Structure formats: structure tokens, C-alpha cells
Amino acid sequence: MMHPKTEVRFVDPATGYGVFATADIPRGTIVYVRDRLEAAYVARRSNRPGPAERPGKTAYADETGVHIVSRDNARYVNHRCDCNVLATAYGFEIAVRDIWRGQEICEEYGLFDLGREIPLACGCTRCRKQLRPDDLKRFHAVWDERIRDALSRTADVSQPLMAHMDAETRQRLRAYFCGEEPYQSVAALCRHTPAVLSAVPPDHPKHAPFEVNG
Questions:
Q1: pLDDT category, 89, cuts 50, 70, 90?
Q2: How does the average pLDDT of the chain come out, rounded?
Q3: Rounded CA gap, 98 and 36, in Å?
């Protein structure tokens, strides 16, 4: 589930659609949580979604190789190497910079361990030019630092998605804040199974969008 203060807008013919903030979203705000309305598919022919179930743009695979298909604005979030949102090992994504009203919300696709090289053309000054299978190993320490900094602000900002977070995730987050458990690095997002499919659910009729909106 995506933060309620967002909307999908057309960006340009090359990129397609993106997600934009309809109000200021401060650093430390949880902007996405996985919820029960999202569909999950494994890489087996018997579990392929039918044409009516296929998403309009993107899905992602978690560390177990299960493909998660978002049903709301979350599936239209584009990549930028200087992203303002990062996925965490806790199953949610967090704003690592202040996001102003009207600004596009962009995430780091390197955290999804896609298992192959994918060209990037995000146009930012930090553009890496391509996603690589070892991005998590190369950059997890940098991403962890940004996430921990954002988490330090979580209690000080409005969290409309907290009510939709599952009980286990809330408990893990509370344990981290209370010093009962150490921070869980995004290195834990590395696939536990081989990357049979990447970035799109089985038999998705379109090419992965990363080549044009990255």
C-alpha cells in the first residue's frame, strides 16, 4: 500500500507514469507497506496470473523469489540513483529525504536484487548507468546509513501507513527502536533462491520498464 498523499501522473513518453506527492512528505515517513491486498506469484506455470490480473507496469520479487504485484500507486514508482525513498529489510519503504508536494517519488531498484544487468537512464548526476546483480553487496552500507538516519525521525512525523503494517513488522520495528534488536541491514534482501524471473511476474507481456525509466 502506497502513502495516501500520492497520485499517479504521466511523466513523458519514454518513462510513462510515475508517482508524485500531493502533500509534503517529511524524511522518516513510511511511504509503502506490503499489505494483504497485494497478489503474490511464484515462478511456476500453474501460478501465472491471467490477462485480467496482470499489472499495468511493475512488480517486484522479494528475497524468497516470490513476485509481489501491487494494486495501487506503488506499482508506478520509478527508479532514480538519487532516490528519495529506500526499501528496508523490514518490509516497508521509507522517505530518506524530505519530499515536497508535486515532487516525484523515486526508489532504488538495486535493492530488489534483480539478478541481471539492466540499463539505466534516470538522468541524475549520480546515475550509475546500469543496475548490476551485485549492487546490494556494493552499496548496502551506504543505503543502510541513509535508512538508519531516516528511521531516527520515524517517531517524529505522521505515519498514516502504520495502521496497515502487519503486527510482526510493528513488533520488529519497536524492538529496534527500544534497543532490543539490532538494525537489520538491507543486505538481508539478497535473494535466497536463484533469480528465475526479475522485476515482472511470470509471462508479463511487456518488457521490464527499467531500460526506459531508470
A1: very high
A2: 80
A3: 28
Mean predicted confidence (pLDDT) in 171-191 = 93
Q: How many helices (H) and strands (E) does the chain have?
A: 3, 12
Q: Could you give the percent of the chain with pLDDT greater than 70?
A: 72
Instruction: Give the pLDDT of residue 198.
Output: 40
CATH label, 6-213, candidates 2.170.270.10, 3.30.300.30, 1.10.10.10, 1.10.1760.20: 2.170.270.10
On the CB side of 203, CA atoms within 13 Å amount to: 13
Distance CA(214)–CA(87), nearest Å, equals: 16
The full set of domain ranges for the chain reads: 6-213
28 with 168: CB under 8 angstroms? no
**Does pLDDT of 26 surpass 90?**
yes
Q: Are 97 and 27 in contact (CB under 8 A)?
A: yes
What pTM was estimated for this model as a whole? 0.79
Query: What is the three-state SS of 27-53?
Result: CCCEEEECCCCCEEECCCHHHCCCHHH
Q: Strands 85-87, 60-61: parallel, antiparallel or unpaired by DSSP?
A: unpaired
